[in-house]
Amino acid sequence: YAMASTDGQNADITMYGQIVETQPIDWWTDEPIPGQYIIESEFLNDLAQIEGCSQITIRMDSLGGDAGVSILIHNRLRELAAKGKNLVCIVDGVAMSGGSLIMCACDTVKVNPSSLVMIHKCWSHVWGNYNADELRKAADANDAWDKSQVSIYKRKTGLSDTVLTHMMADTTYMTGGEAVEKGFADELLED
Hints:
By secondary structure, the chain is an alpha/beta fold. Helices cover 39% and strands 28% of the residues. Strands 1, 2, 3, 4, 5, 6, 7, 8 and 9 form a nine-stranded mixed sheet that branches. Helix 4 crosses helix 5 (161-169).
């Protein structure tokens, strides 16, 4: 993950890695876990430094991660778009799960033929002992997350809630060309 302003008007954001709220720590050693991470606080601090740029290009390669952080980043980018900033996302590798939510913040999404975009319904970890009421409450929470994500995909694609919900339920993977056909991307980058 890196962010740079090239000339005060153009900014490049390289979003390679897992989307996380905080730096993952090894609980045995209390040391940071090595890897590529898009960390909420770092991203927001860096974003404040480039808010004056009129052109922002995001280079994406992310398997996703924390849905809440992904939605926050999406919304902050949409806020910049509402202020007239030109947002472009180039999917260098994959835009899966939370990565696809961030990708959809951009008004122009460019994909390679070999790029992959994946959308799915909300996942949550459930362990322990629960009664039926508690499990229904957890399912209701997941439904709310799904509706939030549908609203993001709908703005970008124009597809209906029903179509998007079915695509998410099926955990849909799309090549670059398929992402363009379905409206998740705007341009197919050819050699």
